Amino acid sequence: MKKILTFILAAAMLATVLVSCGKSELDLLRDEILPKLEGAYSRDLAGTTLYVYNWGEYISDGEDDTLDINAAFEAVTGIRVEYSTFDSNESMYATLSGGGVEYDVVIPSDYMIGRLIKEGYLEKIDTSKLSNYKYIADEYKNPEYDPASEYSVPYASCYLGLIYNNTLVDPEDVRDQSWSIMWNEKYRGQILGIDNSRDALAIAMFALGIDINTEDPEDWDRAADYLSEAVPLYQGWAMDQNFSKMEGENAAITAYYSGDFFTMVSDMNETNGTGYHLSMYYPKEGTNISTDACCILKGSKNYDAAMMYIDFLTDPYIALENAEYIHYTCPNTAVRENPEYSEYGNELLYPKVPVKAEYYRHLDEETIKHYERLWNMIKSAG
User: Fold this and answer.
1) 63 with 28, same domain?
2) Which of 38, 109, 299, 376 has the maximal Cβ count within 10 Å?
3) What is the mean pLDDT of residues 109-136?
4) Helix, strand or coil for residue 247?
5) What's the angle, vertex CA 68, arms to CA 65 and CA 71, rounded to 5?
6) 3-class DSSP string for 186-236
């Protein structure tokens, strides 16, 4: 689910050098893409700059001959995309709440969307004006965090899982598929703690059998105490760093997202053919399932361009290219039904046996302040 914050102009991804036929590379890309699209995308807003804020490693960007989706959007619509990334919902929220930034489209996770709605950060989205919204699977519509689907359009979904290097971890220690391995003294200095408060504390809660959406401060205190016991075993805290650490076999165990696990495996296979050294499971005590969705920020100066961008992301061809690159569970029915989509049978992305998993809910302000205080104490001590 991610690299250090970067700013990428989609316009810079393809040079506008002329070719023998007299067309620029963007013109050629538009000619290639347009016949494959179902939606109609106007060029009335050509020259507009759209500001998009998304997770790192979370959109097909042209690497390894994949489709550069932002460049394709610019080629088709003439709208420039200035694209920035974040590595956690909490860091994204801190940026938005700090002011001084003007994003149009942001792609947070479910519980954070609930918070942004409650605090008035989001514009309503009229999904009847999105030609591809019909492809969003019914189970993703009207979710608890956005009951009338007024503020968000699902982008991708995943589970939080336990990732380990099966050449560095004793098979007996993962046989019971538990979160407990993150408290195993044997792996001192080889474990990466997940560097965001909600996931890190939730892991402790699942391990202890505590409701991850509790608003009882004593439950959060218990979880924080238990998490603190694991911290001395950690090599460090990681979000985007999980990629280099696990791919480089410089850590043995981490908790991270299902889509990113497959990116790690793919990257390792491409570089040295050892992606099979990584394995993943969803712990028996339970885990988090999450959905990330496209939202438009309140006061966006480019609302119509934002709507077009969201519609473009849900276009069957674009959504397929994206799903195959990011390796996350795709909520788009046209992608799932496409015989060219090879990952629909993947048990980690589309489990046939139900996973014991829960969504995070947006909690009351006092609870958020309480667990963030606990988190800051854990981080400062570790």
Assistant:
1) yes
2) 109
3) 97
4) helix
5) 140
6) HHCCCEEEECCHHHHHHHHHHHHCCCCCCCCHHHHHHHHHHHHHHHHHEEE
**What stretches of 32-135 adopt beta strand conformation (E)?**
49-55, 80-86, 105-106
Burial of 237 (0-12, 13-18, 19+ CB in 10 A): middle
Task: Give residue 26's pLDDT.
Answer: 85
**Over 70: is that where the pLDDT of 3 sits?**
no
Distance CA 369, CA 382 (A): 20
267 in the same domain as 179: yes
Residue 350 forms part of a structural domain: no
Q: pLDDT tens digits for 56-93?
A: 989 999 988 899 999 999 999 999 999 999 999 999 99
Instruction: Answer yes or no: is 349 within a domain.
Output: no
Q: How far is Cα 151 from Cα 149, in angstroms, rounded to an integer?
A: 6
**Structural domain containing residue 241:** 159-289+355-381
Main-chain phi, psi angles of 334, to 5 degrees: -65, -35
- C-beta of residue 247 within 8 angstroms of C-beta of residue 275: no
Query: Could you read off the pLDDT of 178-222 as tens digits, one per residue?
Result: 999 999 999 999 999 999 999 999 999 999 999 999 999 999 999
**Cα pseudo-dihedral 372, 376, 378, 382, rounded to 10:** 150
Give the pTM: 0.90
For residue 238, the tally of other CB atoms under 10 A from its CB is 22
Q: Is 345 contained in some domain? A: no
Q: Which residues of 170-189 are buried (b: 16+ CB within 10 A; e: fewer)?
A: eeeebeeebbbbbbbeebee
Query: Residues 165, 193: one domain?
Result: yes
Return d(Cα 116, Cα 247) in angstroms, integer.
Answer: 34
d(CA 315, CA 135): 8
Residue-level length of the chain: 382
Q: Which two tokens stand for residue 97?
A: 């709440």
